[in-house]
Amino acid sequence: MADYLRPTPWDKRNFQMDTFEVMSLEEEALAQTENIEGHFTIKVDPFKSSKILLDHGFYYVDTLIEPVCEEGKLTVFEKDGTDISLEYDRERILEIAKESFEHGRFHRDFNIPDEQADLRYMNWVSDLMDKNQIYALFYEGSLIGFYGFEKENVLLLGMKKEYRSKGLAKPLTSMGCRKQWEDLDLQQLKTSISAANAPSLNLFYSLGFRLRSAKDVYHKINRSSMGV
């Protein structure tokens, strides 16, 4: 029998339980979640019927919009005083990360305490720094945010609260996109944004990203000896 459950150890360390991504919507795949303790994630086409998922104890948590920017379509905004760099104070980046992830799908999962959801994103930022996949965002010499990436994917954005809504998101994010594009010699950039996060959707649309696809995200927990 095929194994449809892909372990996600990067999530296991945060949630005090085994965690898995379910790789298929087939009955055989969902049946494999029945007798295993842990947290399960599946991402599906929004036009697929959710009945089979609900029958197996999954619940809806989010819709991820997946915009793409093709080569030559990126709009770069300029603003005096803005800069980005691969050199930064690690602890200051982590401090910014603490206040940056209110729209994550694990924050929307009512079975996950907020402090564990916060830890999940903090650890992700830390992992990206270990791999030199964080650009620090500066304004007038001050470190105010970060931009996380991997290959052609824009993964994470964070900015200190006092610098939001001040016209800095477009120039700093577009500079990060341009540097990622040039450093990695890419043909396109992709990102994934919660449908609830309207400011991020508007931001990336203004930079030249256009919607290509979307995924509905469902979770499931088998609890018998869970730590949440």
Helix-strand layout with pairing:
Elements: E1 5-7, H1 9-15, E2 19-22, H2 27-31, E3 38-44, H3 51-55, E4 59-70, E5 82-85, H4 90-97, H5 114-130, E6 134-139, E7 142-150, E8 153-159, H6 169-184, E9 188-191, E10 193-194, H7 198-206, E11 210-222
Parallel strand pairs: 2-3, 8-9
Antiparallel strand pairs: 1-2, 3-11, 4-9, 4-10, 4-11, 5-6, 6-7, 7-8
Account of the 3D structure:
It is an enzyme of class 2 (transferase). Keywords: Acyltransferase, Transferase. Residues 79-228 form the N-acetyltransferase domain. This protein has two domains: 5-62 and 215-222, no CATH class; 68-213, 3-Layer(aba) Sandwich (Aminopeptidase), CATH 3.40.630.30. Helix content is 29%, strand content 31%. The protein is globular, with a radius of gyration of 19 Å. Strands 1, 2, 3, 4, 5, 6, 7, 8, 9, 10 and 11 form an eleven-stranded mixed β-sheet that branches. With 228 residues, the protein is an alpha+beta fold. Helix 1 crosses helix 5 (114-130). The chain is built from seven helices and eleven strands.
